[in-house]
Amino acid sequence: MEPIGGESSKDAVLYVNGVRRVLPDGLAHLTLLEYLRDIGLTGTKLGCGEGGCGACTVMVSHYNEVLKKCVHYAVNACLAPLYSVEGMHIITVEGVGNRKTGLHPVQESLARSHGSQCGFCTPGFIMSMYALLRSSELPPTEEQIEECLAGNLCRCTGYRPIIDAFQVFAKTDDAFYTNTSSSDLQSGEFLCPSTGKPCSCKSKGLNGAETCKKSTANENKYEPVSYSEVDGSTYTDKELIFPPELLLRKLTPLYLNGFGGLKWFRPLKIQHLLELKAKFPDAKLVVGNTEVGIEMRLKRIQYKVLISVAHVPELNVLHVKDDGLEIGAAVRLSELLQMFRKVVNERAAHETSSCKAFIEQIKWFAGTQIKNVACVGGNICTASPISDLNPLWMAAGAKFQIIDCKGNIRTIMAENFFLGYRKVDLTSGEILLSIFLPWTRPFEYVKEFKQAHRRDDDIAIVNAGMRVFLEEKGEDLVVSDSLIVYGGVAPLSLSAVKTKEFVIGKNWDQELLQGALKFLEIDIFLKEDAPGGMVEFRKSLTLSFFFKFFLWVSQQICMKKSTAIPLSYLSATQPFQRPSIMGNQDYEIRKHGTSVGSPEIHLSSRLQVTGEAEYADDTPMPSNGLHAALVLSRKPHAKILSIDDSEAKSSPGFAGIFLAKDVPGDNHIGPITHDEELFATQYVTCVGQVIGVVVADTHENAKLAAAKVVIEYEELPAILSIQEAVNVTRSSMEKFMWDGQEHFYLEPQSSLVWTMDSGSEVHMISSTQAPQKHQKYVAEVLGLPMSKVVCKTKRIGGGFGGKETRSAFIAAAASVPSYLLNRSVKLTLDRDVDMMITGQRHTFLGKYKVGFTKEGRLLALDLEIYNNAGNSLDLSLSVLERAMFHSDNVYEIPNIRIRGRVCFTNFPSHTAFRGFGGPQGMLIAENWIQKIAVELNKNPEEIREINFQGEGSILHYSQQLQYCTLGQLWNELKLSSDLLRAREDAKQFNLQNRWKKRGVAMVPTKFGISFTTKFMNQAGALVHVYTDGTVLVTHGGVEMGQGLHTKVAQVAASAFNIPLSSVFISETSTDKVPNTSPTAASASSDLYGAAVLDACEQNKGTRMEPLAGACYMQRIDLSAHGFYITPDIGFDWKTCKGNPFNYYTYGAAFAEVEIDTLTGDFHTRTANIILDLGYSINPAIDVGQIEGAFIQGLGWVAMEELKWGDAAHKWIPPGCLYTSGPGSYKIPSMNDVPFKFSVSLLKGHPNVKAIHSSKAVGEPPFFLASAVLFAIKDAIIAARAEVGHHEWFPLSNPATPERIRMACLDEFSSRFIDSDFHPKLSI
């Protein structure tokens, strides 16, 4: 090591879960996550690699020399450079608790509360909560708990059970009023806050054999954290303490190296830092690495020198002065937030207007893990045009202190610091030293604004910082000074100079407002093809923000002056205040035997909360194993002229490149028709098509080598939309468009392939819903019989259809080098590659005519629908067919014609997704239902009710409805939601509020259960009874979080009349149960439960331990193979008659929303859901599926927008996916859960068509989230009525802030759009 400006440390030391580790030189390129997984701590997961999902969360502890105490905080291990945590203690989920030594109460609570489904995100949630408890001197509030989880995403649960699990640790919990430990209480007892003794003063929900009603109040209370700076909490006697060595050890400067000549420095004094900056003027300064890390990982920018400035005291100052606040450039955002909150409480209110603005902006800046490490100076100097904080620094009159290598300091106003796109007023020899934020004066107001796709952890579409200083002149208030700064409308944070000049010297009145709006139109100029798109929306936001600022300042003045603004306008100034989530679950328990019907927790939940559950990428690699990376097309349609791999072959760690010519067997693949190539030969038909595969010694080296493969193309015309594919012409039919949706399973696609017996057999572990498809693809590609290929799947971290067919080519690609080199090969996709190449939910375009009476009764429907298949058929025809089956939703239509077309386009092939075309078919039905309501001036619910199908109805494909419960559950929901009163309350709210509107909607669903391809409705199972009386079950279904293994185990336990703990399901494997159908279509519990029951029936009488042993001694077979086929189904497409479905799952949902008409922001106030699930095998798991499906559906209808390079988005390269990661693609977060979230299961209606009278649950609830979409539309209708617009208007999904705001016509948006404006959509 080469000392720079001081003595360098000899050993780089790190503690992990209490174990001392010495970090060798040469690892500067590694992240903390890579290191942890390399040493076998695979509980910390790689979900996205950009700090956007929280799956990699760990807790960092270190001794703070300034505070003289240990600090604990959560970080994203995927972004933290390994050497940045030198001298610290890292606790991963494995260090919190495990099955052998005992679970931590945080883990136990989450498992018991059904808060872990697929389990991939679970360790991240555990660590975020654990870090909060370790860092809190007092029990945290419910708000703090939800805030600490803002950086964690979950795709399965809908978040409600996670919130429930963790809220028991909040200080509002009853147990915290007493000194009694909840562990001393009997089950179900309640501590009285008055006496501190167990009592029954609190009303209990009904529990028992008949009915279970649960609210968010959790019965399992935990003691509050017993705070200790070193030891942390005293939840258990095994809690990891802060290592004493680190308390005594003094930090020393570091100089270390990494791959490719990378140098890592850690100076401890400003002098040392300046010397390094002089020697390496192009060095990047890092604290949290939240920007540089993404640049190096995702953008492939190679920085040679990184200097960690986190420990330079001069950059970490945080001083309160008489005239303002001095903030060191390396101060972390979480520290800054604490300081702002402190000064707001301690100083005069008029001095802290800017501090309050920063508090609000930082709150929504990013997840807690990012704020814990991201520094102020990094955000400033990155100079992002959408920085949330830079407009505020500028508006608030902040000053930046800059120091050069010689120690000279200069000061510059923040408004003059930003020069252009990511360009600031810093020379290569200068660094930002500190920021000075002045206190505000009386009548000086600073306000923040931000609109993003999602409130939590999202980059802004447009943001702003605004300041005005008013002076009293007689009775008037005159603008003395002002600054209005916007982000997201220019290459840099833009000051509205002309507007500023106009307002100065003017009275603060309506005349100023109108004049300022006109000047803002001049100041803010966006070209039609401006990067980021949404030009009209962004322009309208600039005016909306200023209008909100004008009203807010006027409101502040009202408190001091007698002036007033209209009461109905006050809603524009009210900040978003989210109450704690209230959940309610109401279901009937119908026990059958020992286990069926019981709300058991997920069998793997305790493994998942401890990080012990293994996924495909967690499988250890043998010493000679290789990692693979795909060589991908960069053109949407082109002829391949040449492939130059010479540079790749000289890349470090390179072990081979394999192209189409190297495939031993058939290069053609496909789930139905072999219309795809494993490796492209002559032509590529989409961006992201696989051309070859590179293998190397590490994952990063494989990616580096693959990127060096040079491909020369001859570009050809590309088809980039459904319209281009079918040349849709104008017609008298109404047109409607549906957007697609990314699966965003938390576990990326992954396969590990290895050979056995010198290559005569091939085995693999894959993250797939269809192991048999992997087996088949690999066998065909390698030219082997299927009997020599085995695919195993333990569990997968979410699938939702995305791992049904599109995972198979990944395993096939990895199998080629594995087979030819006779070495293990692992191929795990990065999140951006996964999203780009594996397909999404199909986009649809529909045209319809509908006939109806003046009462609203349906007479006829003529419907044409088109789906965007992408560049191969995949399952697109089957998806289209189900969309056609479901295009009636639940409505009686006497005359109906439906025509469908699958469209080829030059995008990656789209595929199965929860609902499989059903939601798209039903959405267009609800669209024309609503249009009829508008035409007849009636509520949509009235139109729905008079057209309901019922018992005996004959559907348009000739199937007759049996056991239809639609009417009953609809009426129950109508009563429980009090629909009429909810409508009236919304109406009254809308009359009293001009700029916020509420809407309500109630939507039904009917979802057909079965694969629509008849032969797939079969299942096999293998049941072994051992001599100790325990049972091993193997079946063809895959556990992906939906609780399939748990339900199947319950079936087996009840069949043998043994405890559930005596039944074990290990994995799904093609050498145990052959020829299996994919785990899809919501039918897996029906199919595999029945197959297992069949096997158990064959083994009846051998179930108890003495009896099983006796049977063995008598040479009686204790193993049985079960098989099941769904009876009486089949559909003939030639005659268009038959029974494609075994039965239907019915449901309905009520939703109430509130929208901000000026920005398009919305939140769901209430969601009330009811489903008919017969007699549930496991009602708790079913409720979890309903909540998860609903929140995923909420993403589809209101949040998740795919943006492709097409005619509608010319700023994106043709055929490329822009929304390829959590930074740009926003799934719902915890903040998007309805305030009141209720789920009920219809009671007393057994299903005679499925095992134990149960019904399928996975897909049916998904569409019910459309109630939110139509509630949003209801609110928009109220907004449009304010300006005299009562006509019909379409609202495509997703109802993003852009679509909501631009549909709410007013005097601000009308400056940029006409009343028939529709935001652009990629279809």
Helix content: 25-40%
Radius of gyration: 31 Å
- Mean of residue pLDDT? 93
**C-alpha geometry:** globular
- Write down the oligomeric state: single chain
Largest sheet: 8 strands, mixed
Number of E strands: 51
Distance between the termini: 56 Å
Q: Beta-strand percentage?
A: 15-25%
Count of separate DSSP helical elements: 34
Indicate the low-confidence ranges by residue numbers.
173-209, 216-234
Structural class: alpha+beta
Give the strand order of the largest sheet, numbering strands 1, 2, ... along the chain: 27-31-25-37-34-35-36-45
Descriptive notes:
With 1323 residues, this protein is of the alpha+beta class. The protein has 34 helices and 51 strands. The strands form 13 sheets. An eight-stranded mixed β-sheet has the order 27-31-25-37-34-35-36-45. A six-stranded mixed β-sheet has the order 8-24-51-50-49-41, with helices on both faces. A hairpin with a 7-residue loop joins β20 and β21. It starts with 11 loop residues before the first strand and ends in a 20-residue tail after the last helix. About 4% of the residues have low confidence.
